[in-house]
Amino acid sequence: MARPVLLVKSGGEAALPEWQRHFAEAGAAVEVRWWDDPAVDPASVRYVLVWDPEPGRLCRLPELRVIFGSGAGVDFITRDPDLPRHIPLVRMATPGAAQRMGEYVTWAVLSLVKNARRMAIAQAAAAWDYFELEPTAPATTVGIMGLGHMGATAARMLRALGFRVIGWSRTRKEIEGVRSFAGEAERDAFLAAAQVLVCLLPATPETRGILSKPLFDRLRDGTALVNVGRGSQQKLDDIIAALDARKLSAAVLDVFEQEPLPDGHPAWSHPRLTVTPHVASLPPRRERAAHVAQLIAMHERGEALPNTYDHARGY
Ligand code: NAP
Ligand code: GLV
For ligand 1, what atom is nearest to the CA of residue 172? Predict the structure, then answer.
């Protein structure tokens, strides 16, 4: 009997052989084909693994059972107005994804506390720019917006380094050593306490443009910012204005409304802004294929899948 088809749209068509190899190594009982392969009968497709599928395509796969997002955020899938909402949409939540994000956030926070951008600029100019490094981790409060799969892991890693860690989420959390603030009512108290603010929120209508002047006005002067959520959550002009006004001391941004960040954008050269190219957490294809293969096996056994997108909540 023909095996069910898994269509892949992630990493470009050149990545297909690699996906096929990793799914075979993981023992997945599927035939892995490219998204635009004209020889694939749409009725044979049971699974898809996608990033940014063209709107209107998923609803034309009559036997589709599960949509696997190839990233943790699935906003590039849910923006399809014809998305078949009755089909489970699974977010990529490998343990390695949270580990990588925790490492990136830890690096970003340390680089802000240690003023790494200033040192890199000085080195590029061969300048001995001596300055004293203050403060230490135990004297620094890191506030994490979003304490989900990624945010909770980052919080634990920062705690282990001695940072004071607080978090803000929709619902209250119990994470050892982390003070939890919940909902709109506690947002301003959270913001006022943070010295480094990290955004790990999903892209939803509520979080769109959240990192902008009205929120910055609630922060202490000189708060540092890390955004690893989505570019749609930040107003880049407001961030640059807040940096210039010293409301924000410095920032590390991994995500942008327009990616790649356009040539000549002032963000590229701002002396207190570090730009990284949306690399905070991208598990290798082998890890993602093994994870999806495991979930396909669970689905075939009739088990419920973890980390599914909740259409009512929007993440
Ligand atoms: P998650 O497990 O769904 O966690 C989301 C967190 O945000 C939850 O704690 C949730 O609160 C909170 N939240 C959502 N809406 C909120 C609101 N309006 N007010 C307050 N808190 C709110 O997601 P995740 O796996 O940690 O990933 C988070 C995001 O990181 C993704 O959606 C993606 O955009 C981004 N990401 C970026 C990269 C990168 O490479 N830059 C990689 C992976 C992910 P509750 O817990 O109370 O529900
Ligand atoms: C990357 O941005 C992801 O959502 O996994």
Answer: 47
Flag whether the pTM goes above 0.90.
yes
- Cβ contact 201:73 at 8 Å: no
Main-chain dihedrals φ then ψ at residue 84, nearest 5 degrees = -70, 105
230 counts as catalytic: yes
The b-or-e profile of 103-130 (16+ CB within 10 A means b, else e) is ebbbebbbbbbebbbeeeeeeeeeeeee
Residue 228: nearest ligand to its CA? 1
Residue ranges per structural domain of the chain: 5-95+283-300, 98-275
Q: Which is the closest atom of ligand 1 to the Cα of 170?
A: 47
pLDDT in tens, 96-118: 999 999 999 999 999 999 999 99
Centre of ligand 2 from the C-alpha of residue 197, in Å: 19
Ligand 2 pocket, CB under 6 A: 71-73, 92
Establish whether domains 5-95+283-300 and 98-275 are of one fold: yes
Query: Is 33 marked active-site?
Result: no
Catalytic residue among 179, 218, 265, 278: 278
Q: How many whole angstroms from 203 Cα to the centroid of ligand 1? A: 8
Q: Which residue type sits at 249? A: S
Q: Interior CA angle at 309 toward 94 and 172, to 5°?
A: 85
The third-level CATH classification (topology) of the domain covering 98-275 is Rossmann fold (3.40.50)
Tokens 């690699």 found at = 18
Q: Which fold has domain 5-95+283-300?
A: Rossmann fold (3.40.50)
